[in-house]
Amino acid sequence: MKVKICGISDIETALYAVESGADAIGFVFAESKRRVTPKLAKEIIKHIPDQVFKVGVFVNERADVIQQIVNETGINVIQLHGDEIPEFCEQFSIPVIKALSIGSSEDLNQLDKYSCDFYLLDSPRGKYRGGNGVAFDWSLLSEEQLKGKKIILAGGLSIENVAEAIQLAAPYMVDVSSGVETDGKKDVNKITKFIERAKNRSKHEIS
């Protein structure tokens, strides 16, 4: 099972997450308590191995601004977490993750409108477009229409529930932010345990 740790804002935590087995690191460039500047993201990305996804999270940002940040920082995956239309998502030369809020099975119909590399399925939006720490009904993801799509599961994941979430939803990747924080800050012990739970679950299923 692949794991994305989102909302990273310092080199030490990024390196710790990667050493613990994280497959993707997320940098938030939208309104959020975890927002980072392109300059800081660039500095952190210098220290992250090539094989790790460096994901830039944007919400209703202009395409030229996104491209400028990609060029400046070394981001190699774009995550669009706003109201971006399908045509907007198709104009970039690097992989795109389209985030969609899922509250019911009808919301899954949104996937048919987009042609993206990955689909991040999150809980209905709260104060911010993501990182609200609320889960949705994971059993919805057993729907036939998700077959063949690379699904990233987000929203309310934690050390306690990630194994269950993987069992129910069978995603391509799990994405966590607030679930590995203590008092609003990334907690390296929680990051380690979350990755262990996610990866061990996958290993158990294979065996």
Query: Separation of termini?
Result: 14 Å
**Sheet with most strands: strand arrangement:** 1-2-3-4-5-6-7-8
Order of helices and strands: EHEHEHEHEEEHEEEH
CATH architecture: Alpha-Beta Barrel
| Beta-strand residue percentage | 15-25%
Class derived from helix and strand content:
alpha/beta
Number of domains: 1
Largest sheet: 8 strands, parallel, barrel
Task: Enumerate how many helices there are, as a single number.
Answer: 6
- The radius of gyration over CA amounts to 16 Å
* Proportion of helical residues: 25-40%
Number of strands: 10
Broad CATH class: Alpha Beta
* Mean pLDDT value: 90
Q: Which fold name corresponds to the CATH topology?
A: TIM Barrel
Overall form: globular
Describe the overall structure.
The chain is an alpha/beta fold. 29% of the residues lie in helices and 20% in strands. The protein contains 6 helices and 10 strands. An 8-stranded parallel barrel has the order 1-2-3-4-5-6-7-8. A two-stranded antiparallel sheet has the order 9-10. A hairpin with a 2-residue loop joins strand 9 (181-182) and strand 10 (185-186). Helix 5 (162-169) packs parallel to helix 6 (188-206).
